[in-house]
Structure prediction request, 366 residues.
Amino acid sequence: MRVLQCTTRSVTLLAAACVALGGCGDSGPSVPFNPTGTSEDVQAVNSAFSSPVFGSFSTFSVHFDAALGGAPMVSTAAQTFNFRRATSGGELRAAAVRNAQRVAALTQAAHGGFSASAAAIPAEVAGKTFEFVDGISYSPTARTGAPANGVRFIIYAVNPVTLEPALPLNEVGYVELTDLSGSSTQAARVLVVSGDATYLDYTVTATATAAGGRVTVVGYVTDGEHRANVNLRSTISESAGLTLVYSLDVPQRDVSIDLTMTSSGFDQTAVIGINLSMSGPNGVVSMAGQFSETGGTLTVRVNGDEFATLTSSGAGEPVITGADGQPLSEEDVTALRNIFDITGEAFVSFDAMLMPVGVFLAPEAP
Prediction:
């Protein structure tokens, strides 16, 4: 699997999302498991998130909040860490803690009784188009085209080696942010366009609950060939901890992914629970289990039958062994590892989609 292009890899893991996956990947357990085909299905998911336009979006979006007068959701120095793919139980716990902090930051405004007018972008920049004029930060310009209740940011090509803005700047498209907040909910739409094509179209919504908060991301991402419909929902509470629900489907390949991850707390001692299922024309693979501070195991089933065990010691890549000591082929191991990678990349996807809209969803008190 791949992660965001703003690190060394591209994210795998946004108009309608696959909220109910009943119509996706209906191949059922009667379809034999094809590990090579399964890896190809995962690669199709990767492709939707690995276009150069998505790479430019993820690289430049970390600068949007500062341009709109807010604090960025992650510091520039922390970008690499925040967008790394989690590959071990320890890294999954770190990603869960970071995700919980995101949700808390984006929903605390609602707890404070913020109105829709407070959630809106500053009036002085509404309807403005921003350009990366000095190669360091964004500034508003006289260009037209931005929505009246939002803003537009021009994005540029990224150096594939340094993963920094390529110089001289080469414009590749724009990101449009539109405020959709209501009386009790903060919400924003994100649209990424290059040429005549829309590469991302999704809505982020933040809502306070009685004891915590919930943030959802619903929409799609495409590379022009493969489209991934995404529904992400992250909920936190002091009593229940964190729950991340991630649903994704790629209609062109009839592939669906349904993942639920839970964290018992908000520190590195939290226990991470995982329930993951991927279904499509090459079979149905599920993984279920948990990781603690010292490691853990996931039971892998293929078409309903126990197939393998995935074990993590808390650091490094997990070890995959066949059920009852049965040997696995290299293709089997590769396919299962690719599917497991989805767990870490769900958090990465969530972070990437939240990055452009911090000011919209968590404004400062007036």
